[in-house]
Amino acid sequence: xxxxxxxxxxxxxxxxxxxxxxxxxxxxxxxxxxxxxxxxxxxxxxxxxxxxxxxxxxxxxxxxxxxxxxxxxxxxxxxxxxxxxxxxxxxxxxxxxxxxxxxxxxxxxxxxxxxxxxxxxxxxxxxxxxxxxxxxxxxxxxxxxxxxxxxxxxxxxxxxxxxxxxxxxxxxxxxxxxxxxxxxxxxxxxxxxxxxxxxxxxxxxxxxxxxxxxxxxxxxxxxxxxxxxxxxxxxxxxxxxxxxxxxxxxxxxxxxxxxxxxxxxxxxxxxxxxx
Length: 275
Known about the structure:
By secondary structure, the protein is mainly beta. It has helices spanning 2-12, 138-142; strands at 29-30, 36-37, 55-66, 69-80, 84-95, 101-114, 124-134, 149-165, 168-179, 197-207, 212-219, 233-243, 246-254, 265-274. β3 and β4 (69-80) form a beta hairpin. The two termini are 19 Å apart. The model is unreliable at 11-16 (pLDDT under 50).
């Protein structure tokens, strides 16, 4: 963690590393699962700043701290031609009050199908898939999860509307996800009476200028694990795209009830570096 944060710190003060030809901020930030988007919702954007026939590579470190839990995420990603995105994230979910931790690996792929974020009437539309592997399955199994691994597929549509609010540009995103995960997979997948469901996720981001943004997100959750309610997630965040090599996202999160512990609210911090 310290080495990753040191490398990202170097990027914060170095505007001279090549990152690609796309307009700043159009690669989005990095979610807690490693793909391009906001904080908790993937967008149709492709990470980094690679345009036609260009490559881009990024790394990120994130932390979500709420009343009784802490989620740390580390990951890397790559994109090509502003069309393909690959990502990998390792998550560590500390059960601060209960004791113990849960770990999960998330491997993602995303493909831009149609449209453009900025310059066409059609929104940018991407399809994505994630394979998730829970590395500490004893607790999820004990509370009813049926499998330590699973997959999710999603479709996202994202569009920037120019001069939408008080002369500022507005980004809107809608995502539909197919999943049978419990708490995004941190408490396993499937189980008796659990079916695959379609969940809705959304984001709205006001671009204050070319590199500062304020946003909010909503993530619908399936609530299929019988021992404790799973509630929808929400956040409010501010993003600073310092240059094409570095960005910082700071936010407030409301994760509802988790594992029987109620009203899990707190902060979200993410640092990202791009080459």
